[in-house]
Structure of Indolepyruvate oxidoreductase subunit beta:
Amino acid sequence: MKTFNIIITGVGGQGIITAGTLISEAAIKMGLNVVMSEIHGLSQRGGSVNVEVRIGDAYGPISPRRKFDLVLGFEPIETMRILSTINSDARVIMNKEKITPISVSLKDAEYPDVNGMALLIPGIKKIYEIDAGDIGNQAGSFRSANTVMIGAVLSLGILPVDEKSIIEALNDRFSGKMLDINLKAMKLGMEAMKKMDASL
């Protein structure tokens, strides 16, 4: 199958690597070839984290010419850093939660205004913005925001993996209360995206 290239970006501690692992494990359960790579800084210092997941006829971990079909942006600034590398028809889902990067806080600078920045990048048609942290809290823990993001992209129907395989991956990774929270977070993420997509 044609390779589907995903980049998940944000700040250390947001569960970005876990999100990439869940998608990768779901792909394996569906019998698909998958390659995952990660580049990350220190979560304690607000380090940037990028995870690439390539599903399909991919043999190397890095996307050619760094072209992506999907961006899951867990933090606005980190999302904006990635946008110039994606395909013109790519989908972008961005968590609204702002985390001040160390480069800004050390300089005693203000968090930049990211509103409208996507319009300055050629080819970006739409960014779906979702309050994943708030939805995660509704599910029982803000730490389930990463599963909210996975639910949101599942709702768009563009991932090569399905809801059943994600649920199986969640069952392998979590148990008890944390499993219940993450399953609920995924469902709430799906519902939030359906409402948003229907309003566009």
About this structure: The helical segments are 16-29, 76-82, 102-106, 132-139, 145-156, 163-173, 176-199. The first helix runs from residue 16 to 29. The mean pLDDT is 86.
